[in-house]
Amino acid sequence: MKQAGFFERIYAQVHAYMTDADMWVNIGMAVLKIVAIILLSRIVVSVVQSGVNKVFQHRHGSKIQMDQRRVDTMRVLVNHIVQYGIYFLAILMILQLLGIDLRPVLVSAGVLGLAVGFGAQSLVRDIITGFFIIFEDQFAVGDVVTINNLTGTVQEIGLRITKVRSWTGEVHIFPNGTINQVTNFSLQNTLAVVDVSVAYEEDLNQVESVLKEVLASAQTELTDIVAEPQILGVHALGPSEVIIRVTAECKPNTHHGVNRNLRAKIRTELTNRGIQIPYPKIVAVSGKGTV
Fold it and tell me: Where are the transmembrane segments (predicted)?
């Protein structure tokens, strides 16, 4: 009987708890507030990021012109900071609705952050390195770089990681603290270098005259060439050819395309002028032997 009475009391308490209208109203209101906070935070993030993108968009004809590389990098970074900051505030508001005192939580977070700072030194190093990469403008979104012997286009720069997309499509992710050496191909003009091989029998003065015509035409047709191409003269003497070197200053990271175009134009014009481009030849000499 005592056991039956015990279960009856438990049932009565559970029934009273489950049928408490005020409790369910409070729970429903709390759930609605949490859902509203989540939706509102997402809306605020979208609106603020849209405003950030509008502020950092490129404006033609503006009196204040900024490097587009740096603008794109700052736009991505500010969007990330806005997103993390708003979501962090939303989490704090949800915890407060759940009745959790935030003061001990913030104190614990500070102590935990200090412990993490000592234990996760690589994470701290990544963040500090990322800050200096952005502050010093070592490279920006859209730059073609070589990082730790991997070459590609920078897709994203954050405080912790950098994403680089290679020309074959792979995306390489580097923790900023591991970036030891960077070569940036997008900061300064580059130099297209073409070595032209002609046979020893050809007149070098005539060859240089033809090359001057080709280079003058290329400077007009190829918008990536920013200065008058130069003929440096005989660069080397090979086993069967004379090598003449030609250079052209180009816009940043456009020298590969200019090289290909110059080679095609030079080869076509030399052929049209009857100037021989050397290729390996085998000469067989037969002689009469004596016994």
Answer: 27-56, 77-99, 105-124
Q: CA-CA distances (angstroms) from residue 281 to 96, 241, 272, 274, 278? A: 86, 12, 22, 18, 9
pLDDT tens profile 141-163: 888 899 988 899 998 887 788 89
> How many whole angstroms separate alpha carbon 60 and alpha carbon 154?
24
Side-chain half-sphere CA neighbours of 240 within 13 A = 8
Residue ranges of domains in the chain, CATH in brackets: 2-57+65-100 (1.10.287), 128-184 (2.30.30.60), 190-272 (3.30.70.100)
DSSP, res 225: B
CB-CB contact of 276 with 267 (8 Å): no
Q: State how beta strands 190-198 and 150-157 pair.
A: unpaired
pTM > 0.70: no
For the beta sheet containing 190-198, the strands, ordered from the edge strand earlier in sequence to the opposite edge, are 190-198, 242-250, 230-237
Amino acid sitting at position 185:
F
Q: Of 222, 231, 227, 233, which Cα lies nearest the Cα of 256? A: 222
Q: What is the DSSP string of 99-128?
A: T--HHHHHHHHHHHHHHHHHH-HHHHHHHH
The pLDDT tens digits for 78-131 are 777 788 888 888 888 888 777 777 666 666 666 656 655 555 677 778 878 887
